[in-house]
Amino acid sequence: ILDDPDLKDIDPTVLKHCHAAAATCILEAGKQKADISAISTCLEDCKLDKERIEQFCTEYQKNKDALEILLGSIGRSPLHITDVSWRLEYQIKSNQLHKTYQPSYLVTLNVENSDSGSHPDVSFSCTMEQLQDLVGKLKDAAKSLERATQM
Question: Taxonomically, which superkingdom (predicted)?
Answer without folding.
Answer: Eukaryota
